[in-house]
Design a protein that fits this description.
2 copies of one chain form a homodimer. About 2% of the residues of chain A have low confidence. Chain A has 2 domains: 287 residues, Bira Bifunctional Protein, Domain 2 (BirA Bifunctional Protein, domain 2, 2-Layer Sandwich), CATH 3.30.930; 90 residues, Anticodon-binding domain (Rossmann fold, 3-Layer(aba) Sandwich), CATH 3.40.50. The first copy, chain A, is α+β, with helices and mostly antiparallel strands. Chain A is elongated. In chain A, 45% of the residues are buried. In chain A, the strands form 4 sheets. Chain A has a 9-stranded mixed β-sheet with strand order 1-5-6-12-11-10-7-9-8. Chain A has a 5-stranded mixed β-sheet with strand order 15-14-16-17-18, covered by helices on one side. A two-stranded antiparallel ribbon of chain A has the order 2-4. In chain A, a hairpin with a 2-residue loop joins β16 and β17. Chains A and B meet through α1, β1, β3, α3 and β4 of A and α1, β1, β3, α3 and β4 of B. β3 of chain A pairs antiparallel with β3 of chain B.
């Protein structure tokens, strides 16, 4: 093999960074399970028709067999439906629910921590292969709006358990926006939503221009749309939205749902209404979420999602759902890349056994086994260099202890302090410490 | 969405089965870490040139962007190298080592638990998407044969911690076979290995025929090849191999390495020499492993690997390595499919709080939060059905406890016994039990 370069958009961590990622995912999973979400895992591929059913389809990676391409006529390989890698975990989950409905109890609460793939242009914090951590809940026929509150609450608690700057979870409701726009007499709702969704990126003036030029919306209506989008805060902004004077049944319903979500999550703090959030994906029908990190707003939403009442339907039963997704690779890529988190750990080894000579390897392996049997991660040094060199090698690997096999027993040296002492092999314990050592610089 | 059918070769578990898979992977990872293996994760894709560098390439899934296919001329999409999904974890690991060598300390011990993809024809226990659990160790320039012993020992201990029938780990050494064949004057070594590798499938007579007809090997040599392949057992078979009277330097070296591996793993039991093991992949150069389950030999090797001295090389430094891989999806697919393991658990929820009426949802959410704060997985019943129906729903989900919010306090019902009693919400604990309940039928 020759030299290799990274492939843009496909990040790989060091062993220590991977250990931290594992720890954080375990924390996330534990929090999900505390709230009664069960894990599932869906296959990485879906038929193209499932992937392109709703939402954006231009970023999909299609699969072809190397063998098919080379040896078989094009027609033959098209006999079966084309498969593509999933670009999120919501679409596969909706398919999983319909396919496995006879095995599930509804409402069904699941979490899913898996990689997804998108063929988009990579940039800071945007990858082509990345992990998502999702929770979703689907009901058979109906799903109470309390489910929408639960999503927000669980994700906010998760973000607070991770080594991250402070998170603000902002919510809106598509029904409010749609009702408001309909109340203004606008009929191109999707286009309006798409343009308002650009507010954070291009600012209110550019949004106003687009609404007028592209959709022919009049000045008064544009002004009201921007007035609504400016409202952010607690329960008081619901009254302020009503005070704008636009009325529509759907808007009333959406505001009522927002009130309920706020009431059920009030005790947590950190959840705000923000009427500027629209969310791009077509399949959202009610509550929508976006989470930003205070002081790091430029990286955009790190945790988002929403209510989808029409995504999954199997035969006569509709499965309304709501979900929220945490982009863990994006977060870690940012934290590692900016050195906001620095990992010191390189391996799980707690004790390295020094090697006296080639003949003592069997004895050294036995000593390692005795430590492992008591749950202590132990390894044997690989070559018979002099002890000074072996100790340097151990220090370089950030392993905390070295163990010497002596003629009359055993001794342990703590690398950080240089302290060395005789030990009883069957009772000695390393000082307790976290599995992963890391520093936060934020 | 319409009805969906499974895609052949892409298995999906129920939530309870997924929970068991997680438990087993956590056990496997813990055992790997005890022995000093650090986790890494490689991207799911590699350039085609890396994937086809060694070994079998016909099963590779290639990636194409949907967008590229539709809108761009074929030439443009070929500017960058074609990417494919990895078909094992050894080839990506070798690439990872060379690419990230400046960040690693050698010898480098890593484990990797990840999905791989192969476009081959699915059959029982053979999938197109599956998890592998690998350990590998690579040295810079040299790697002691004790590493080969470590692989076997760790994997055997892992297999013994999993709910599986008894495992026998069988080892051979490619040098023995190559030296033996060269000592017999055979020069088409790869072809000979390939044919001998079919022994378990087609039997000794068919192998003899192929060796004679395809390679023109004489009767005497074929007889000796089959005599060697018949030898199985402990250290004594090494002497029996020598007694066949074929001599070659490479064979002597291989037998010496086998002796050392046996000596370092003798205390474990369950490791046997088997001179019939050849392993298909081209990149193995020394020790090779295959593991079968007693009474379930027909499913083939469930854990295999070997030594590869030439797979990874970056510039002037060679990185000899050795690794072994456990096919966990294959194992679980077999155990679930034959009902050798039956999972009862459907979700992590320990307590379901009954819902008195719609208005008490906020109060019920608070109660759930108080339990979760003490590490108890709690959920709130979704609808205000009568208590009889709610209790039936809870039982159907295999959740052990139901909690009633009463006017003067709280009561808990254990579903299995029907026992109900008043509790103090802040001190009550569910009876300790394993996170996943399952039955083994073997």
């Amino acid at each position: 093999m020759a030299k290799f370069s990274p492939i843009s958009g496909f990040p790989e961590w060091t062993p220590g960074q991977k250990m931290l990622e594992q720890e954080l995912m375990a924390k996330i999973a534990a929090e999900f399970e505390l709230a009664g979400f069960a894990p599932i895992e869906t296959r990485a591929v879906e038929p193209l028709s499932v992937l392109t059913n709703k939402g954006d389809d231009k970023e999909i990676y299609l699969l072809n067999r190397l063998h098919d391409n080379a040896d078989q006529p094009k027609e033959k390989s098209k006999e079966k439906e084309q498969l593509g890698l999933h670009f999120d975990l919501t679409v596969p989950f909706a398919r999983y629910v319909v396919e496995h409905q006879h095995l599930l109890s509804f409402p069904f609460k699941r979490y899913q921590i898996q990689k997804v793939w998108r063929g988009e242009r990579p940039q800071e914090g945007r990858f082509r292969e990345f992990y998502q951590c999702d929770i979703d809940m689907v009901g058979a026929e109906t799903l109470d709006v309390s489910a929408d509150a639960e999503m927000a609450g669980v994700m906010l608690k998760v973000m607070r358990k991770l080594p991250l700057p402070q998170a603000i979870l902002r919510i809106n409701n598509r029904k409010v926006l749609q009702g408001f726009y309909q109340g203004l007499g606008i009929d191109r709702l999707t286009d309006t939503l798409r343009i308002v969704d650009k507010l954070a990126k291009i600012g209110p003036e550019a949004v106003a221009d687009l609404l007028k030029e592209e959709l022919g919306i009049d000045d008064k209506a544009v002004e009201l749309i921007l007035s609504l989008a400016k409202l952010q805060g607690g329960a008081e902004v619901i009254e302020q939205a009503k005070a704008l004077g636009v009325e529509h049944e759907l808007m009333t319903e959406g505001l009522e749902e927002l009130s309920q979500v706020l009431a059920l999550t009030e005790h947590l703090g950190g959840i705000e209404v923000d009427f500027s959030i629209a969310r791009g994906l077509d399949y959202y029908t009610g509550t929508v979420y976006e989470t930003t990190l205070v002081g790091h707003e430029h990286i955009g939403a790190v945790c988002s999602g929403g209510r989808y009442d029409n995504l999954a339907a199997g035969g006569k039963v509709p499965y309304p759902g709501v979900g929220i997704s945490l982009g863990i690779t994006r977060l870690l890529g940012y934290m590692f890349g900016r050195k906001l988190i620095e990992v010191e750990t390189q391996s799980p080894t707690q004790v390295m056994i020094l090697l006296n000579d080639a003949e003592s390897r069997v004895k050294s392996f036995e000593v390692a086994e005795r430590l492992r049997a008591r749950g202590i991660s132990a390894d044997v040094y690989h070559t018979t260099q002099n002890f000074g060199k072996q100790l340097k090698g151990i220090q370089k690997r950030a392993i905390p202890y070295a163990l010497f096999i002596e003629e009359d027993g055993y001794a342990v040296k703590e690398l950080a302090t240089g302290e060395q002492s005789k030990i009883d092999l069957d009772t000695w314990q390393p000082a307790p410490r976290e599995r992963v050592q890391y520093k936060c610089n934020f």
